Amino acid sequence: MINSVEKASVLIEALPYLQRFSGNTVVIKYGGNAMLNDELKKNVIQDIIFLKYAGIRPVVVHGGGPEITGMLKKLGKESSFVSGLRVTDAETVAIAEMVLVGKINSEIVKLLNFLGAKAVGLSGKDADLIIAAKHLAKVRENGQVKEVDIGFVGDVLKLNTSIVESLLDQGYIPVISPIGIGKDGATYNINADYVAGDLAAALGAEKLALITDVEGIYRDYKDKSTFVSTLSLAEAQEMIKTGGIDGGMIPKVEACVKALAAGVAKTHIIDGRNPHSLLLEIFTTEGIGTEVVKYRRYING
Amino acid sequence: MINSVEKASVLIEALPYLQRFSGNTVVIKYGGNAMLNDELKKNVIQDIIFLKYAGIRPVVVHGGGPEITGMLKKLGKESSFVSGLRVTDAETVAIAEMVLVGKINSEIVKLLNFLGAKAVGLSGKDADLIIAAKHLAKVRENGQVKEVDIGFVGDVLKLNTSIVESLLDQGYIPVISPIGIGKDGATYNINADYVAGDLAAALGAEKLALITDVEGIYRDYKDKSTFVSTLSLAEAQEMIKTGGIDGGMIPKVEACVKALAAGVAKTHIIDGRNPHSLLLEIFTTEGIGTEVVKYRRYING
Amino acid sequence: MINSVEKASVLIEALPYLQRFSGNTVVIKYGGNAMLNDELKKNVIQDIIFLKYAGIRPVVVHGGGPEITGMLKKLGKESSFVSGLRVTDAETVAIAEMVLVGKINSEIVKLLNFLGAKAVGLSGKDADLIIAAKHLAKVRENGQVKEVDIGFVGDVLKLNTSIVESLLDQGYIPVISPIGIGKDGATYNINADYVAGDLAAALGAEKLALITDVEGIYRDYKDKSTFVSTLSLAEAQEMIKTGGIDGGMIPKVEACVKALAAGVAKTHIIDGRNPHSLLLEIFTTEGIGTEVVKYRRYING
Amino acid sequence: MINSVEKASVLIEALPYLQRFSGNTVVIKYGGNAMLNDELKKNVIQDIIFLKYAGIRPVVVHGGGPEITGMLKKLGKESSFVSGLRVTDAETVAIAEMVLVGKINSEIVKLLNFLGAKAVGLSGKDADLIIAAKHLAKVRENGQVKEVDIGFVGDVLKLNTSIVESLLDQGYIPVISPIGIGKDGATYNINADYVAGDLAAALGAEKLALITDVEGIYRDYKDKSTFVSTLSLAEAQEMIKTGGIDGGMIPKVEACVKALAAGVAKTHIIDGRNPHSLLLEIFTTEGIGTEVVKYRRYING
Amino acid sequence: MINSVEKASVLIEALPYLQRFSGNTVVIKYGGNAMLNDELKKNVIQDIIFLKYAGIRPVVVHGGGPEITGMLKKLGKESSFVSGLRVTDAETVAIAEMVLVGKINSEIVKLLNFLGAKAVGLSGKDADLIIAAKHLAKVRENGQVKEVDIGFVGDVLKLNTSIVESLLDQGYIPVISPIGIGKDGATYNINADYVAGDLAAALGAEKLALITDVEGIYRDYKDKSTFVSTLSLAEAQEMIKTGGIDGGMIPKVEACVKALAAGVAKTHIIDGRNPHSLLLEIFTTEGIGTEVVKYRRYING
Amino acid sequence: MINSVEKASVLIEALPYLQRFSGNTVVIKYGGNAMLNDELKKNVIQDIIFLKYAGIRPVVVHGGGPEITGMLKKLGKESSFVSGLRVTDAETVAIAEMVLVGKINSEIVKLLNFLGAKAVGLSGKDADLIIAAKHLAKVRENGQVKEVDIGFVGDVLKLNTSIVESLLDQGYIPVISPIGIGKDGATYNINADYVAGDLAAALGAEKLALITDVEGIYRDYKDKSTFVSTLSLAEAQEMIKTGGIDGGMIPKVEACVKALAAGVAKTHIIDGRNPHSLLLEIFTTEGIGTEVVKYRRYING
């Protein structure tokens, strides 16, 4: 049982954060376990609504790999992979789009509205939000790096954010599927971390928060004792170069790097397996996950 | 070859319609063959963009029955029907939503943007646009009408149109999937004709245009010589009551009736199999399909 | 020590209140010990700033009896009292105004700004905010009630709230001294509880919170065991009539009654001697002080 | 008889032009036969209204030489000419102003409003729209060019376009008489082609269309076979210098040159003797008259 | 020589009028000698600009009978009269329009702008400002009143004041010629007093000031000693009925009556032969001309 | 007695000033006898209201030395002085604030509102309007200048004028007490002349008018025959340097110099002992007091 004095202390602890973030944009990449476990899902939705009512402008970008895989399986569609990326033919990208836009996005929008927000789902096709270009997989062959066409996997080429900003200005929470539209009219599936990082940059966000399934970043990802709570931009770039970062973590760190370079104040990799980690990260002094910042003040790794 | 004088005459024929519709809202139900044939599809998209640039505020509601059926088949999901309506369990409505929102809506939005408009897709879940209630199928049994629960098939309960109006005010073309959200959070598939009729009513539209695959309405639908080009509200209601209208046409006529009752000036059932029938209906004196109006000036059935 | 899980639970407990009060006006009467004790003062100031950053529009009305008495004493000015009200000649009201406007109001404004808000002080003379009329003291003499002129003590005659609303719309916190201006140009000192109640009514506030030095209301104010946490409008009126309420509490309860009658949803008498009682009352389920509401749902007295 | 398919093809031919000109300003110099023949007059008025309802912002500048000459004759006022320009004393310019502002402008405004637009007439005196300076006629005498004062004939010195822009923003069609006001308060009659060109430049118009009584420009104006449908800015300047352009055509070409130099995208000299030539020029692929553009893509002279 | 103390007293005398008229609309009928004499003309123009800079929204309606008569004479056009009204054929009304719009209006606009205002001229055709109907002259024949068609003399049928209000809102002074447009497209010449009265009514003006060439109203217009400085609405109506008012004064008094009935606070008939009579009437306590008011406070006739 | 012609001439004399100052900001330092004498007080208040209704945006800064001294005396608080500045301990500055904000400011606001304006009082603490720093007194000791701490006497460090501009935009007259807030939260008393000069600079005022108790500036302040009606910026700076200006006049001249340097067009030192000197200075050609301007056109000292 928490008593009145304690309750008051928690609320007052939140006050400087309320003041600092008031009116600012925060981009949240929502993915991993926090999308699959019903209780965690409810927690994240509540956290986003809390942000909204605390005067913040939250923008949600979601992933959905496991559900796409599930649907491909149901439809008897087999996938091959190149350098960890799914070879994505026209049928596959159509299925990915259907699942992301027509299932996952719809579900997040529904939950946000059900708990009292006003959310609107967007895909990158809406108002040409995400213009994409084909992403070529890098394959190391005979000591050389070759680029391989793996189909409709895309990179963000350009963001037309006016639809997002107009929805934010009117009090809506935009929920965005990482589907891009090519200049040739083709549909592209894009890594949601990159979309979130680029959006944070383009919107001049105050913060980028990537919700994932790990505790954060380790100096040596094979050694849990090397956990880092704060990483500078330079250190992050160094770790990418030297391969100190685990494969799945690379797009996350690269998204942080891109956002920071564009002026976003802070980026965070948050462990979505802990309830309300987003809320705690933003409104308390608790150390949650790893923050990547332009310059590090002190070392606590 | 059309010469200059003829071209000028066509443009000038359009002038009174340009003047009359300027600044008004037109709701278009887009369905049938015009969604499947690539050439017709392009025609409809061009027509909608023409409306937009002629100062009209077009709102698109789309259907998608055949594509839903196709996907259910691919997923090995069999359907049973009651009174012509598909029995729709939770899995079925999820697939319907995925196809409508993640495939058909996305495709229409993409085409509109590709040809120079700014379109944004919406489902009834976005900003709680379409609040739905369970629709009970009416079954005649032993001379009595019984209501039967057929799952997640919905009726429009309430429309929260502010997201649609705000998008229109900013110059976007809203494209809407006929998916509703129940007060209990359940997803409902709704007949797109009804959604279009209710939207036309709620938005105070000037016109409702239902694009379909038939020439229009017949006094006796088994006798093609009884084609009607203009029908009054009263006649339409009478024909519904007496069963003079074909099953598939009933929701269309009911949508017209509802829109007219709410003050929409004119409603149209347009044959989408003819190229640019929407454009011709709005900007020329050509008689296209059947118009249902509050009061009929003269009889031409 | 409060752990992460507990912190999250406190914040999430606040969410429904954030949602409910978002964009609404709350009028706070700030008086009593919470104005004299430096720690309590800082707490109240933080609470008000918290409200502001939580999307609420706080309006502060302050009292200042003890400080006025102190200054009168310093200036060698003696006071007489009629029915508990100070006989207030022109010199006295000028001193009261000087202390309220030039000392107490200035101090509150300074503290709010120092902790990060944008506050602006107002007296009832600014933009003719508080139009006052002379208040006549009621004296019981020989079994009859006579009205006695006690000088420049005023009642609220009319409120011109546009300056308050315009400051609120621009994000300022208005801090108001209970000084009124007569139609004849005379200055009147008004009970701050009444000013707060009338302002809550005139502004269509969602809540009126009166910070005072007692726990709340007792059914029998001589018996502490008769504490009431919820009182209905009817009960409050009855208690005033039957004399069940202590003298000092009467203006507070009357202010609540007036605000409720004008449509304010809830009014509260809060014990300012407990730290952050305002914050706890608004953002938690804690039972703080006595609430006076239009209709009581259940009895817990 | 034009059938449905042909009608649709004409409308769709107009679509790219609707898209391109939407929201842009088009300045139309209205003069010549199209002002005198009632049928042609109605055509031009309809064309301008069509532009308006197609989302364009039309601005009309009119001439009126023949009507001024007629009124001078009626009043028994004889004119002398220097280098083709009328010597204009104070009485003459007053008559010119009366005819232009009180007769021709009024008539155009009336017709536009009668056919459903909202037009407002302006002279250069309204809100000091056209500040003028005296134009000196150039006379060749003994092989030298001398400047001769011919009275109240003016050049555009400065345009105060805010009244025009404000009327456009509110949906009015401004109709402008080519009367200027000198810094000394004197009235000046200005060539309407120059006023139109300068206005197109000052308003950042997309197009300048000069309606006249000839087919267009000829490389050698004495040889009809040398008709030019597209002329580059450089070619136009060269033709003026070398005298390849007919006297009456010089101000038109100079107006085009000035507008193009200021960033107007295209200028057109249109044959007003053909019905709806303005409409055809803007909304069809028909080759109407001569266009003068910054750079010519191909030669078709 | 006026000394400082006197100057200050005149300015302070104006203060209550500045306060009372601030932001209000005043309609001024400008006619008579004050239009012909250059010094008086300059005075009136200065007075109007003074009003504008004193925070008033002046609207000017002008007459021009003498100048029309002059031009008709120059053009050898003879006029006949019925009941004091000129029989006005199409040619005559065209000349009247030319003189009013193209000469007198232009001149007033020029002078206002020259002295530092921003004026815009309007005729009743601009934006369909004055919709007119044919006025039938009343002729007494054999003891009966017959209506006689005298051509294009009009009555105000309807005023579309939005162009006037929009110009006022943007700080322009509208100057209006009393030319009306019939529903059939015909041009009508209307008495400027009636136009001014109707405009004052339609605009909700605070005051109507009619500048004329007489001292004001006399109870018996043949006896100068019966001058009236204040007349009530009822008295004015009575005087019209009993023929106590001179022919030329009738439209002025009727204009006042109509404006007062529609809520205009005060109407004035001002002697334009005295310099700055408009300014003195509005900003001083001087008794200028005759005021016609709803109710008279005291009698001074 | 002033006759009509004279009245008109005074009003017309004001016209160019009305035109020039329309929409501009004028900062008025209100001090000296004009604050103590009831008749002069009323005059100044009327003058300020006249400015307001003449389309000017007046801002009032007031002093109050004598009243502060009076209150200190009443409270038995003795003062010492260093270089003419009062040594101001915490108690003294609190009393100064009380008198300035709670008495003098309140009184001015009341009078302005009573005579028909809408005034709002501000202290430098409201919305952190005046950020102050400690002013160190300069003391000449043994031929050297030493800086001495004399307590809570302040200099303007920074002005946050948005509250002033927002009140002006909404038609309020801001009345400002010269109390500043230190970055440490301490209260500072500041010379009102400096506050007025800095405000004029920060607001981009057109004029700064300092109402005082002397005729103006003398070249030699001991010789009344050396009165100067116009002083250039350079001359003023020279006179300060050479000690040609009387002690009490120094802050006034320095305020003028600072305002002029920041782009204020004209500054004035006005003799408040003459009735309506502010009005006469602004709206007539009368020579009132001394104007300090950037460059002097002619010498009249």
UniProtKB/TrEMBL annotation, chains A, B, C, D, E, F:
Site feature Transition state stabilizer: at which residues?
29, 252
Q: Where does this protein reside within or beyond the cell?
A: Cytoplasm
CDD domains with a match to the protein in the record: AAK_NAGK-C
Q: Quick one: which residues bind substrate?
A: 64-65, 86, 189
Reaction it catalyzes: N-acetyl-L-glutamate + ATP = N-acetyl-L-glutamyl 5-phosphate + ADP
| Catalytic class of the enzyme | transferase
**Domain Aspartate/glutamate/uridylate kinase, which positions?**
24-271
Pfam families given in the database record:
AA_kinase
Q: Does the keyword Amino-acid biosynthesis apply?
A: yes
Q: Which GO terms describe its biological process?
A: L-arginine biosynthetic process via ornithine
Could you give one GO CC term from the UniProt record? cytoplasm
**Pathway recorded for this protein:** Amino-acid biosynthesis; L-arginine biosynthesis; N(2)-acetyl-L-ornithine from L-glutamate: step 2/4
Gene Ontology terms, MF aspect: acetylglutamate kinase activity; ATP binding
Keyword Protein biosynthesis among record annotations: no
What's the EC number here? 2.7.2.8
Which family does the record claim for this protein? Belongs to the acetylglutamate kinase family. ArgB subfamily.
Q: Briefly state the protein's biological role.
A: Catalyzes the ATP-dependent phosphorylation of N-acetyl-L-glutamate.
Give the protein name, as stated in the record.
Answer: Acetylglutamate kinase
Q: Which gene encodes it?
A: argB
